[in-house]
Amino acid sequence: MSEKTGSKFFTQGWIQVFIVFVVCIVTQGFGLYSFSMLRIPMTEMLGAEASVVSLGFSVYLVVSGVAGLAVNGLVSKIGIRGCLLIAAVMYSGGFLILGFVNSLWMVFVAYAVMGIGNGCGGLVLITAIPSNWFIKRRGIATGITLCATFPASLITTNLVAILTAAGSWQNAPMILALISFIVLLAAAFLIKFRPQDVGLYPDGMTKEEAARVENEETAGAVKVVGLNRSQAIKTFTFWAVIISFGLIGIGEQGVFQNFPTYIVSTGFDLATAGVFMTFLSIAGCVGKLLSGYFIDRIGPRITYVVVNVLAASGLMAIVFFGANVAVLYIGGFFFGAALSSAPVCFTSAVSKYLGPAYFAALYSIAFLAKTIMDAIGVPALAAVGSSGFGWNGALFVGAAFILVSAVFMLVGGKKSKLLSKMEEDAAKELAEEVETAKA
């Protein structure tokens, strides 16, 4: 890599990661962490059952997943700028509606609108950026961007808490709406979907350097090859990734959202539960970065399996010894680290095993599977916890889903033979282009 090319890529590539990190604070953090806080004053004001108001978040998850299916087509037709402009209007619009909520139906409308915005500018789109820009550092770049949930949790929880205490909680979603609109509007003009859009190649390589690298995956990324939806659905790899990502929704989100109730049921107070949930968020950041580091070295398949076996082991330790604070936090660390590693692993898995060309089209299906299972997992494990099996039974079920998810990744997390052929052809084509240019 020439110094000039490498320097230019380093500047552009990591600037893109930083911009996506800021977008992640809004699209991944604001929606996720504001709801649990806003639900309390909304429930009190509307005089509705908390479980009914909670359906608004289920609407948000499902609509986000369905809207994400259109991202690949939208990028092709109106570009990433168009997608982010739609996201700016719809996502901030959802928060704005929450600021004027005075009846239950408005909660559902607000979260449906917000879900459309998140689908257009959320996880499916923004994880494609580090995936497109990096090969050697794809894992760590993705991990860094998804660490944005931690500052998002600090912003939203404190903002809502302060304004609610002041008796003006509806100002909180309106402020979040303004921040979201500004961030997404600016990102629409700053984010570049692929390095090729600005005359660069992944990892800053020139075409000549990519042709010399003894790695056909690199040539495939430079030429942007990959399986489309119709090709992918015929492979076992695709279905293994879909099933694995879906199952982890039950095993992780189902446990995560019910953890405070479990902790209180074991004799701890609500303050302890709150501190523990913050601890899980910190563990999540550590997990994302470590997962990204190891993905770049041993691949997403083995990383995912190891991380989630540790997570299931941590949950089982809590089941048997959860009354011990030390065990609670040690087991919680392994669970919390895995909780945030799944999107990092699956982002890399889709690019590595199915190719980057149609990343958004394929990842959106996996993301939809997870959002549906997220929506199912939370009430399902709550039902188990309220039954004769108790909350220990709920954690045991969550651990079982995590292990089955890991098994599917272990068995099916392999590069498609069709992609290998595409990458071989890309390497030959790249070499021929370089030779032709020299002649």
TrEMBL record:
UniProt keyword annotation of Transmembrane helix present: yes
Positions of the Major facilitator superfamily (MFS) profile domain: 17-417
Superkingdom of origin organism: Bacteria
UniProt subcellular location: Cell membrane
InterPro entries (alphabetical): MFS, MFS_dom, MFS_trans_sf, Proton-linked_MCT
Pfam families named in the record: MFS_1
Record-annotated membrane-spanning stretches: 12-35, 55-75, 82-101, 107-128, 140-166, 172-191, 232-250, 270-290, 302-321, 327-346, 358-383, 389-412
Keywords in alphabetical order: Membrane, Transmembrane, Transmembrane helix
UniProt-listed PROSITE patterns: MFS
UniProt entry tagged with the keyword Transmembrane helix: yes
Membrane topology listed for this record: Multi-pass membrane protein
Official protein name in the record: MFS transporter
Native organism taxonomy: Bacteria, Bacillati, Actinomycetota, Coriobacteriia, Eggerthellales
